[in-house]
Amino acid sequence: MARTLALALLALPAVASDSLLSHLLESVEARYNGATTLQVSFEETYNGAGRGRQTEAGNLYLRKPGRMRWDYRTPAGKLFLSDGKQVYFYNPSTNRAEKTKLRETEDMRAPLAFLLGKLDFDKDFTKFQMKNEGNDAVITAVPKSDKLPYKQVEFTVNPLKGYSIGRLVISGQDGSVLTFRFLNEVVNPNVSEKMFRFQLPPGAEWVDLTVGQDGQGQQ
Description:
Largest sheet: 12 strands, mixed
Helix content: 10-25%
CATH class: Mainly Beta
Number of strands: 12
Order of helices and strands: HHEEEEEEHEEEEEE
Oligomer: single chain
CATH topology: outer membrane lipoprotein receptor (LolB), chain A
């Protein structure tokens, strides 16, 4: 039955029927809500005014509730980490580390924590549209909150590969576009809690934005 519905999704016209769209969203929710941890390789491409096109890559680790670790191999040493409450960012080119509150960050990597929170498309998004793209189903959705740093999200899902998300395109309020491509996804790998504890690199400048916009202090 599941395979029959998956094949039906691949034969969709430009706009999907409500029942098939609902089935797809529920299947994606079931995949990620049933996971405790997740590991996947990523390629990240940013297009924004004044910055041009930038492409980076590495490995992403997620752990409930809402913890994430972006380990970059390009550029080597770059790190974006959240322990579920705070966000830490380290840039090796400046040897500078920053700490801010998760709910206050405008970094568009932060929303991906929802994959290991409680994924609920109907609660978080509206104005769904879906179309087929080869073997994939492409869903476009608008967040219900207008206070987020992004205004639209596009999910690319392959129904024949367990409804995993292979691509995510996040359109920012500022006109920027952040595209993630995901490969080699592993559900429920052994991901240690220690991976989500930030360690300040030796000699790095430390800036704690949780105590004020320009507040600096010890980690």
